[in-house]
Amino acid sequence: MKISFSNKFDSEDSLVIIYSDKNQLLKKITLSGAEKNLIEKVEKLNKSKKSFTEFFNIPDGKNIKKILISKTKSKFEVSHTEALAGKILSQLERNNIEKAVVICSVDSNREGLFNTIKALTHGFLMKDYRFEKYKTITKKDFKVTSLSFIFQASQSEKKNLETQIQMVKGIYLTRDLISEPANELYPEKFVQLCNVLKKVGIKTEVLDEKKIKSLGMNALMGVAQGSVKPPRVLVMKWNGKKDKDFSNPLGFIGKGVTFDTGGISIKPSGGMEDMKWDMGGAAVVAGLMYTLAIRKSKANAIGIVGLVENMPDGNAQRPGDIVKSMSGQTIEVLNTDAEGRLVLADVITYVRKKYKPSLMIDLATLTGAIIVALGDRYAGLFSNSDSLSNKIYKSSINTQELVWRLPMDNKFDKLLDCSVADMKNITGTRGAGSITAAQFIKRFVGDVDWAHLDIAGVTWSKRGTDFSRPGGTGFGVRLLDNFVKENYE
After folding, report:
1. Phi then psi for 235, rounded to 5 degrees?
2. Mean pLDDT along residues 303-315
3. Which of 114, 248, 256, 293 could form a disulfide with 307, with the two C-beta atoms 3.0–4.6 Å apart?
């Protein structure tokens, strides 16, 4: 969809009017003929303080085919305005409107109006994403091709808006990666698709199978050994502070299981096709790093993702195998379908030892138990730091990418103790599956401030959300970008 900005309204396309409770600027909008009655109706509804989105046909209008009226909150909120844009876009599509002009009349303060337009722009583009690259025979869905804001932007505002438009690429990259089928996206291909990061100033390093083995990442290798697709670890470095020594960066770690059959502990066949997005955590980290670079974040950040495919094979890891992780700790693998935590164990150890990050946040589609607990609305948050948790929670409210903190303690941790190794990868009990998975990861964190986001329920939506169509949501990119912006720049 093309987003543009114009100084005047002279279109034959449909019109969208967005206004707020306290708005008086509708009186200044000059429309001809039958449209005057429409403005009166808008003002009447405005006084009734009803929230609505409605289309009106203007049969005798000289220029306008249809008008959509939508009321927003009088107090500006980014997430509300972005969600409103998504609802408006859905309305335009339901009415087969290909092009529309937007008059945003919400605030007499220019800064407030500009912020609203910026949020609407972002919201329209987030909702507009589609993954249709493999559609060839069936007709592609109807879509809105262009929206034009009536807004006379200064040069600095135009530059700001362009950055806002470009930042959506980070979310799109995450959704692209999540949406690709596993025959097209495997560890090596994931790395190739992330080459786009180099164009915006991110330095990348790829650890191949030989390097992974030499580092002693045996927990990660154990997951990968059943697949013909070799593993990779991708390191993404953004030096926003321009430091020569790149000391104590923010660390973001992602689970990248490009397809998860469960291995020898194989999953049921029903729904297994969804396991193409078990690399959702890695996709979020890539999209976040892209976003930080596009907006030229002033923070230093390191992104690292462990990329494997978990397959059943004559060479696959068996239940009962014991592996020695990069940290030196040994793990009895009781269930090969609890593989993501094995990948994270080695990758977290690597980034902690090599880059000495000031904090670490890992993201993973880790457990089905988190979906039982929180559904598809909240991600699970686990942490060893109240301060870090509070910062993440505040950003979740700001972006409406919601998280909910769950408990961790020593008694949960003891459930992982093992008689033949330092730990086992599952407890063998039915309860607290998400919590004990987080406790497992915590054993590799050391004394660094750390948070774990279990995004299994929010990575993919069959119904769509306020910010996305059915499919990959990109959950986590905006959350962590806001987290960085609000706390570390």
Report:
1. -110, 130
2. 97
3. 256
Question: What phi and psi values does residue 277 have, to the nearest 5 degrees?
Answer: -100, 25
For the chain, domains (ranges, CATH) are: 2-153 (3.40.220.10), 168-487 (3.40.630.10)
User: Which range, 20-29, 151-160, 355-364, has the best average confidence (pLDDT)?
Assistant: 355-364
Rg, Å, the chain Cα set: 25
Please check whether residue 287 is in contact with residue 339, taking contact to mean a CB–CB distance below 8 angstroms: no
The residue among 302, 310, 305 whose CA lies nearest residue 425 is 310
Asked if residues 246 and 300 have their Cβ atoms less than 8 Å apart, the reply is: yes
Tokens of 391: 């910062």
Show the tokens assigned to 340: 């993501």
Helices assigned H by DSSP within 217-314 = 218-224, 280-294
Q: What is the pLDDT of residue 36?
A: 53
Catalytic residue, chosen from 127, 189, 255, 341, is: 341
E strand intervals along 178-329 = 203-207, 232-239, 250-260, 300-310, 321-324
Q: Which of 65, 99, 241, 267 is catalytic?
A: 267
pLDDT digits (tens, 9 = 90+) for 148-190: 998 888 999 999 999 989 999 999 999 999 999 999 999 999 9
Task: Assess whether 267 carries a catalytic annotation.
Answer: yes
Q: How far apart are CA 462 and CA 81, in angstroms?
A: 23
CA distances from 242 to 166, 238, 249 (A): 22, 9, 12
